[in-house]
Amino acid sequence: MLLLISPDGVEEALDCAKAAEHLDIVDVKKPDEGSLGANFPWVIREIRDAVPADKPVSATVGDVPYKPGTVAQAALGAVVSGATYIKVGLYGCTTPEQGIEVMRAVVRAVKDHRPEALVVASGYADAHRIGCVNPLALPDIAARAGADAAMLDTAIKDGTRLFDHVPPDSCAEFVRRAHASGLLAALAGSVKRDDLGPLTRIGTDIVGVRGAVCSGGDRNAGRIQPHLVAAFRAEMDRQAREHAVGTPAVN
Ligand SMILES: O=C[C@H](O)COP(=O)(O)O
User: Fold this and answer.
1) Which of 43, 202, 230, 249 is the most exposed place for a label (fewest CB within 10 A)?
2) Helix, strand, or coil here: 117?
3) What is the CATH classification number for the domain harbouring 216?
4) Domain of 26, in residue numbers
5) Is there a catalytic annotation at residue 29?
6) Where are its TM segments located (predicted)?
7) Using a 6 Å cutoff on CB, does residue 7 contact ligand 1?
8) Dist. CA 218 → ligand 1 center (Å)
């Protein structure tokens, strides 16, 4: 499982760089503009320059409306600025068809510019609270749009977690559907260390985290702490070892 950490700007990205050996992807967002709030192009560029070259930089394009042209242009801005994972939160899409239309436009905009960049279609585990597309529809939306990964996060950061809205069994189904379509499965949403066991067991490819590696566990008032990133990774590694021991070898 890969660890994606979301700093809110250049200063926190430098703290991520100090913990670079413990994380896999640095995810640029602007939490005060929403769960998948988009940051400025120059911040993406500065963060790309600040983190080691072997660490991919991801950027969120926002909690986007159902406006394929607007979103495609924003996604192009993110990839031109140096991000190689482009994450789109389908906040304003109420049907799978709307999600597919937005994501197809994003995939074209991104891949025309940089074919190897990865496009991530993100839905929300708490979709029922905001009236957007069902979380379990995301793997199909991503696959039909030609994206590379399906993701879930939470839209409302009020302390409720991924598993409060989409229990582990349903997350397992999400991962199964993503893998059946050849996609990566990414899960986030106030994930805590205690959630790493189930996330490992269901075969999650990428876990996205902010609050759990901030001081006081507070994604807004707290700051990312390199030692918390290291501790989180240590628990991921422990879970991976435990799971490997419990999984019979397949020849
Ligand atoms: O993409 C990951 C998100 O930033 C997760 O943030 P969170 O752990 O504070 O919910």
Assistant:
1) 249
2) coil
3) 3.20.20.70
4) 2-246
5) yes
6) none
7) no
8) 11
Ligand 1 atom closest to the Cα of residue 190 is: 10
Using a 6 Å cutoff on CB, does residue 27 contact ligand 1? yes
Tens-digit pLDDT profile for residues 46-79: 999 999 999 999 999 999 999 999 999 999 999 9
| Domain membership flag for residue 189 | yes
ipTM of the complex: 0.97
Residue 68 one-letter amino acid = P
Nearest to 66 by CA among 112, 97, 37, 109: 97
User: Exactly one of 30, 67, 87, 157 is catalytic; which is it?
Assistant: 87
Whether 251 maps to a domain, the answer reads no
- Is 87 catalytic? The answer is yes
Burial (CB count <10 Å: 0-12, 13-18, 19+), residue 32: exposed
> Tokens 């899960």 sit at which residue?
187
Q: How many structural domains compose the chain?
A: 1
Q: Is residue 65 part of a domain?
A: yes
Q: Which residue has the tokens 């994604």?
A: 219
65-123: pLDDT as tens digits? 999 999 999 999 999 999 999 999 999 999 999 999 999 999 999 999 999 999 999 99
* H or E stretch covering 242: helix 226-246
Residue 245: its pLDDT value, please?
Answer: 83
Each residue of 213-229: b (16+ CB within 10 Å) or e? bbeeeebeeebbbbebb
